[in-house]
């Protein structure tokens, strides 16, 4: 994946996570989704033109398209108000591809990015549950998971790559997996607390009517 593109994956995951937990309005988040989504489509196109059919380069470009189309789709939904089922089922496709790309990264010896791709697979599966299957109760869990992994899986690795100091080994991969697991548990706990806190408010009108 392009190092510059990876940097902006971090910021857009952070912004979209804030949108899902209600901190940022959808139309406000849409603008950055269009910017980053457009970049994640233009960059891989340029990369493919110059790739000389190199399989590794083509694979990296394919990953960028998965993200680019997601963010453009999010931007369009927020601006038009169209329902998100299509994006949800597309997210299932992205999640499956991320699992496969993670396996490929392991076979290529990059265990850290193998784990990162699997963490992204979990996030996009949450997008599928939320949008494709209409599990609206998972909105805050999904949002917090996106926030917690945004810089862990994208911004920080991007800076190491840009500085030429990126390393990948089993110990770092295990550390990344542990942090990803902690982020998932934290997101689920926060999401559950938010649902419990919202439950009395949801039932209040019924009590008043009674």
TrEMBL record:
The keyword Electron transport does not apply. It is found in: Cell membrane. The chain crosses the membrane at residues 6-24, 31-50, 56-74, 86-106, 112-131, 143-164, 170-190. Pfam families: AmiS_UreI (PF02293). Keywords: Cell membrane, Membrane, Transmembrane, Transmembrane helix, Transport. InterPro entries: AmiSUreI_transpt, AmiSUreI_transpt_sf. GO terms for cellular component: plasma membrane. Gene3D superfamilies: 1.25.40.600. It is a multi-pass membrane protein. The keyword Cell membrane applies. Belongs to the AmiS/UreI family. This is Transporter. It comes from Cryobacterium lyxosi.
